[in-house]
Amino acid sequence: MSLSEAPGLVADLEIGLHRRGEDEWMAELRFSSSERGTIGTDILTSGPVDVDLTRLATLHHGGPLVTRQYGQLLSDGLFASSTVRQEFAKARTTAARGGIPLRLRLLIAPSAPELHALRWETLLDPDSGTPLLTDSNVLFSRYLTSTDWRPVRMRLRSELRALIVVADPVNLQGYAAPGADPDSPERELAPVDVAGELQRAKASLGPIRTDSLAGTGRATLSNLVGRLRDGYDVVYLVCHGYLVNGEPQLVLEHENGSVHVVPGRLMIQRLKELNHLPRLIVLASCHSASDGGTGTHDDGAVSAIGPQLVELGVPAVLAMQGDISVGTVEGFVPAFFTRLQEHGRIDQAMTEARAGIRDRSDWWAPALFMRLHSGRLWYAAGFGRGGFTKWPALVNDIWSGSCLPLLGPGMTDTLLGPRQQLARDLADRYGFPLAPYYREDLPQVAQFLAVDQARDFPVAKLREYLIVTLSQRLRELSDTAGEPMPPRFVDIPRSKRTNPALANALIDDMTNAVWDRLHAPLDDPFAVLARLDVPLFVTAQPLSLLTTALKAEGKRPQVELARWNRKCPRSIFETMPDYEPTPEEPLVFHIFGSLQHPGSIVLSEDNYFEFLRTTGRDPDAIPELVRSAFADSALLFLGFRMEDWDFRVLFHSIMSQEGGDRLEQHSHVAAQIDPEEGLTLEPDGARRYFESYFRSPHSVNVYWGSVETFLGELRSHVEGDV
Length: 722
Fold this sequence. Notes:
InterPro entries: CHAT_dom
Strand content: 15-25%
Distance between the termini: 45 Å
Largest sheet: 11 strands, mixed
Shape: globular
Protein name: SIR2-like protein
Pfam families: CHAT, SIR2_2
Organism: Blastococcus colisei
Strand order of the largest sheet: 3-2-1-4-5-17-16-15-11-7-10
């Protein structure tokens, strides 16, 4: 079975290296397998490592023979223990038996930083003596843990953006880099082949959209950090570098174009300012213009910052260790990005690209530092393998009024950012005391605020966050368009921001103003939904964007809330007993509350538990019409993350209704957003997750991609059937 035939199926071997004493290290092995038909196992074993750092240092320079001697010495040290060697062989055998690759992750613990400088890519197979990393069935990376506890969310392939940075200070020829230690001689730095580097970078990145910082005074540290605030996914950095007492020094530029030596620790400190780090940083040591660009001459010093970047939180860093030839770069990097574009798995792309340079003397130079368990960097929009063949059935359910759209929090990510950002901001501001991972869990953070401050405090902070965020977004959009900020949103009085009724009206006004600037009518997801002939919508959104869109279509929507506590208003079916939802007068059911009625909002953990208790014992908490639709409709989930409380509680509410077995009569669709590394990465796996709830094979179709992209496809199919 080839790698492309077994996406996501791997045998995973982690070798952790830890310091045990002076010049003594221990290897700990963990193995797990996702082979079909087997249960993932986790085997832990350990053994001593005998690495001769002094001898290895003498073999840093030389041709293929020296490289092989280096690899043999390093392999003998890593597999010095018969236990380690045997368990490694077992892992390879298990992978081969299942026809799946072995993902080999080498984890160098913080206790052994001196091992980062070793050229682990030269490792040899302890049995055959052949280079281990030229084996197409071994996916190797240097794995590091990170101080950044935030999960890595996958990026849609078509949205990837890259920033190319090439530093060539004007006084480079007159600058002498100090030696790696006080006794080393100074080293001159040659001018950089800027045009050649830009050409190589753009050719390597292929269809990925690129911008660049190149030219006198442009490749500055401030410009780099400033541009990264715009959300680039890939950074391709070309600059000179050298080591001083083991610390990397990057040669960037001042604004006047002169040399600016940036210590690695300063680079890390500035990158900490970013809310979102790049997903991949390529550290491409520069080729000089004076010698025809035959190779690099910094002995891979720039690569030394790779481990620090990953520990900071960058998911993956591709670096060139040692001096590397132009031919190897031109053979490896374009092939790497081509393969990465095809499937999105970065360690697999490394293995495939390395196969193309295996006959070159410096084949070992590309190194991958990574914090990703899965190796996946992006995902492709769509339904996964096999596509979606049930568009006619879904369109028919829409036309017959048997489709129920369920709108999740992700519907407004382009407006407000993900709710995880709100949770982080509140956690930071109010000293959230639990483990870092929970700082992105809004119900947990809201629960802390409700207990630590006051019961209604989380909703008040939600209003404040919305006003601040919407104001910032509106100012950014106005500045981009060269327009002034609308006067009614300038210097908003405090009373208007703190009075609940006035604040809610302000939020509605600001929301509509920002949303209209963000979306043209054709790609506005709420507008697309409003044009469907659907009598009922269920939304987990507290905002009124759907109601506004329905009114803009000439419809007369009515709003209903789940009555899970005594603060919720009377039901519309009490005030309008003859009301019957129709496509012209649809019902918008806010299942977790609306900002127009702050007491109705479900936000904290206690709120969710009370919601479940109330709706479980009081059938009237959710109107009978909505309960029937849960059981008798084709469900269209839009903008949910499967790990979030909103989705899990909503799903429980659906499955607990009488007649839930009738769900098997329909085909359901979930447009999932931002799959998270380590959770739900593959459409096939996500579909199996849904099916475990529905208890019906082939009943759920999972679409990876933005809600806008999915609804654009849906619109074309609906309009095509008119």
